[in-house]
Amino acid sequence: MPIYQCTLTLHDNVFFATREMGILYETEKYLHNWALSYALFAGIHVMQSYRLVGPDAQRPSYLDPTSEQNLLPLNKEGIYVFPAKPLQWSYQVHTFKAAQVHYYAEAVKFGDCTGNFPINYGRAKELAVGSIYQTYILAPETVQIPRWIRLGKWAAKVHVQIQTIAEVESGSGSYICTHPLNPLDLPPATRLLLYNRIVMPPSSLVSHAQLEGDYWLIEKRTYLPRGVAYGANYPQIHSPTCPSH
C-alpha cells in the first residue's frame, strides 16, 4: 500500500468555526482528516447526495453506517487520510454582517439588545491565502487524488501536490508521532500514552503523541501508526469494515 505525502497550499482564505467567543469565530490551525477525506473523495468514493431533507439534514453521519454520506466506504477501498499539519500559516480577521431575509420572516434583533453597538455582525478569523499544510494519504495506486479541492465554509480553493513516499519501514513498540492524529481512527491495539489535545469539532485530534503499537517510519524521521481506519477505535463500528493498512 503506497503512502503519499501531500502538500496543501491555500489559494483562498479557509474558514470554519472551531471556536465561537462572543462575536469572534475562530478557525483552528489544523485541518481535520474527516473534512479532508470528503474534500478529496466525495462524489467518487464517498456518496454525495444532491441534498438532505428531514431529520437527517443536520445529523452528523461520519461513522454512521446507515447514512449515505458516511466515511466507511473508504475503509473498504483501503483509503485513509491523516489530519493536516500546518507548515506555514497566518490569519486574516474579517468583519461580516448577518443579514436577515425580511420577505418571509419578521425582522428580529440578534443576541443581547441592550448594548450600544450593532449586534448583528461578527468577526471571522480565517486561515490566510498562502498557508501551507502537510498530510499523508494511504491509498491504492489506482486511486486518483485530485490536484485541487475545496475546503471550509467558503469552499476555498486549495492546491494539492502529491509525492509518493519511497522509503517506508515498519516496526512495533513505543514511538512518538509528531504528526496530528485522530484518536477515533487508531487501531484498538495501539495505546495512546501521552499527547497534546487539539479541541475541534467534530472530534478532537491529538498531536505530538507518544504511542505504543505497530508503526511506519517514513524516511527515518516521521512515525505514523499502522492499522488506522475510519472509526477503527469507535465502539459502534464493526471490525469487518476496518482493513489493516
Summarize the structure.
The chain is mainly beta and 245 residues long.
- Into which percent range does the helicity of residues fall? under 10%
Shape: globular
Question: What count of helical segments does DSSP give?
Answer: 2
> How far from one another are the termini?
7 Å
How many β-strand stretches?
14
Task: Report the uncertain regions.
Answer: none
Q: What percentage of amino acids are in beta strands? A: 35-45%
Largest sheet: 6 strands, antiparallel
Instruction: Write the H/E string, N to C.
Output: EEEHHEEEEEEEEEEE
Oligomer class: single chain
Q: What's the mean pLDDT score?
A: 86
- Counting helices, strands and paired strands, the structural category is mainly beta
Task: Report what the structure shows.
There is one protein chain. The chain is globular, with a radius of gyration of 20 Å. The model has no long low-confidence stretch (mean pLDDT 86). The chain is mainly beta and 245 residues long. The strands form three sheets. Strands 1, 4, 5, 8, 9 and 10 form a six-stranded antiparallel sheet that branches. The chain has a four-stranded mixed sheet with strand order 2-3-7-6, with no helix packed on it. Strands 11, 12, 13 and 14 form a four-stranded antiparallel sheet that branches. A hairpin with a 2-residue loop joins strand 2 (19-21) and strand 3 (24-26). It has two helices and 14 strands; from the N terminus they run E-E-E-H-H-E-E-E-E-E-E-E-E-E-E-E.
